[in-house]
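User: Quick sanity check before I run a bigger batch. Here is a single chain. Can you write out its predicted 3D structure?
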Amino acid sequence: MFPKYQRYSVEMAVSYETSVLGEGNHASLEIPDAILDQLGANRRAPLKVTINGHTYQSTATGVDGQCRVVFPSKERLAAGANSGDKVTVTLELDPGIRQVEIPAELKQALEDSSLIIRFEACNYSTRKEFARSVAEAKAPETKERRIAKVLETLQARAE
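Assistant: Done. Predicted structure follows.
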């Protein structure tokens, strides 16, 4: 038996069938404990999730005693799946560093303010949220405000 830290480096995929759980505009997929055991993972494992040939990254999470992974509408659309559909899910541990596409304006501001290293030191979810907030801004003023907020937040973490 491998120690837990070594298990994460073993490339293994586990497939199972489940239904897409719809909760209003949100959806998720239950991950049975037996599947987590096969992966050698816990309820906060970083995962690659594949459904109908479409793969996306997510993190397992506990919800009301169950382990689930979110299934965002963008990913449901790409996978051709809807709430209530029965799907075959393939999970793989995703132990590598997760890259986030940084909007050009944010990247330039991070480099100009020497905060790029601090940005890259943030966890995946934080980096993704910072980048998303800037990328989704339509008006230039909104984009500038959001970039300033990211820089302010990162600067405050240093103090």
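The domain at 4-93 is CATH 2.40.30.100 (Elongation Factor Tu (Ef-tu); domain 3).

User: Great, the batch can go ahead then.
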